[in-house]
Amino acid sequence: MNAxxxxxxxxxxxxxxxxxxxxxxxxxxxxxLIAVMLSAQATDVSVNKCTVHLFKLAPNAQAMLxxxxxxxxxxxxxxxxxxxxxxxVMQTCRILVQQYDGEVPxxxxxxxxxxxxxxxxxxxxxxxxxxxxxxxxxxxIFRVCNRTGIARGKDVRVxxxxxxxxxxxxxxxxxxxxxxxxxxxxxxxRKPLCEQCIINDLCEYPAKSTLTV
Length: 213
What we know:
By secondary structure, this protein is mainly α. It is 59% helix and 0% strand. The chain contains twelve helices and no strands.
């Protein structure tokens, strides 16, 4: 895919959604960090149902520690791997309080040193909470980029590195959100809605012709 196509693709995505953001509900960087940690192998909808109560009880790291692991588990019980996630949340909150005065660090290295925080989670926090032009490649972005030809790669890190290099700079900050939303609601895994896709004519997905007849 050439550069002009990419510019047109992101121009169209921007026109439809000028101010994209995560669908996780949060009010500060700490809440976003915890929500993203909980969202691993879970939907944003399921996480939001839990955090609406959890964050009322514990909107910061110290409050989460005061709440205790048993109550945290009770709040997130409906999310997969809730016991492990609760343990990581408590460990992370302890580090935040002891090493960062309760604040969420703003570098990838510091974020990835926290229990339960990997590269993808760090990228989401850096981008959404702190306005850094990072791209967290999840299954949606990986699928969209490989299907369309925006940035093909055999694994998520290859796709991430290509996106950071190839996405036109004016679109880089929000590219993460546009691609996730497009993959979640249009370029779906099993039945992509090619006939409704605003970038259909620019997409290089070989099978799209059979889906738009």
